[in-house]
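Summary for the lay section of the report: proteins are chains of building blocks that fold into shapes. Here we show the chain for HAD family hydrolase and then a coded description of the shape we predicted for it.
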Amino acid sequence: MSIKLERPEAVIFDLDGTLFQAETLMIPSYYAAFDHMREEGTYQGETPPVERLIGGLGMLLSDIWERVLPGGSKELHHRVNELLLKYQQELLDKGEGVLYPGVPEMLQRLKNEGIRLFIASNGMENYVKSVVKYKGIDSYFEGLYSAGEYNTPSKVELVRLLMETEGVQGGWMVGDRSSDVEAGLKNGLKVVGCRYAEFGKENELEGSDVVITDIRQLPDYLPE
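The coded shape description reads as follows.
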């Protein structure tokens, strides 16, 4: 590994598409939510293509639902989101949902180096906390920050809030979407772009300091 980044005080991770294979919960929950709405009469018609949801992962929820159901009412967007979370929670309770290979070992390695670890996600509070807890990685993190809990308008603001609250002066932002790159750069962090979830566009990670194709590569960028 020829490139080495400055040793980070902290590493801030995105969740979906970075640590967690979100589609392993999202896709079955998505279809279950639309089936539910048809049964209760709050939605008629075909289920929108699931690709709209997958392509929007990492965005703010309001933007995701506008993408999935353009022109839909706020009530409809709220209901499908509520049901999606319900079915995701049920799947998590059953042990469903998959971390990317090597995530716990990678987090342990960073922790052993004395690096502070955090999550900053555009997801809902209960979803973020449940995934981290049920997948057994909660003990690695000092703080879990979500747009759902803090009602932040962008990932930039969420990361800024995290850094101010936790007293983080610098470090790495690790994520798979352009919003993660922007959040890192605008908050003075080095950016590690993750290109393995295949949610984003070709130029999604433009501006990253380095790009990895497997989360297990992350510790390789630590200085000797």
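Put simply, here is one thing we learned. DSSP finds nine helices and eight strands in the chain.
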